[in-house]
Design goal:
Blueprint: H1 14-65, H2 72-77, E1 97-100, E2 116-120
């Protein structure tokens, strides 16, 4: 057995540490953009699903009652939703933009009497993936 050199300390050299940190930096640099992309993609998937569910409940309300709901809150009051879904872009359930039905040209109808026939996101941001504004979905 060879005796150990007392001058040589156990541990890592500076070069080994620099190499390890460089590899970690490269891996983080490769993974971070993919992580951010997956967050955006997930948020957009939730937005699409929430819009689909709200529109589906508006249609069911129309089939049940023969008219569109007066507001999105009427869907909650009449039991179609427990609570309004949250817009994942604005992170609020109160920013949805209600699209009212069009009155027929031959009769006068008060604007408050027109029901909500569609809904849009209240965000003015654009999707970084395809560049379309969220409020046009």
């Amino acid at each position: 057995m060879k005796p150990r050199d007392p001058r040589r300390a156990a541990g890592f050299t500076l070069l080994e540490m620099v190499i390890v940190f460089a590899l970690i930096g490269i891996l983080v640099g490769l993974g971070l953009p993919q992580y951010k992309y997956s967050l955006v993609k997930g948020r957009e998937a939730v937005l699409r699903e929430n819009l689909f569910q709200i529109r589906k409940q508006i249609d069911e309300y129309y089939q049940d009652k023969g008219k569109y709901p007066a507001s999105l809150q009427a869907l909650v009051q009449d039991g179609y939703f427990r609570t309004m879904p949250v817009d994942p872009v604005t992170k609020s359930s109160t920013t949805w933009v209600e699209v009212r039905e069009e009155p027929s040209p031959d009769e006068y109808v008060l604007p408050d009497a027109l029901g909500v026939m569609d809904v849009k996101s209240g965000s003015d941001q654009k999707s970084p993936i395809d560049g379309t504004p969220y409020n046009t979905w």
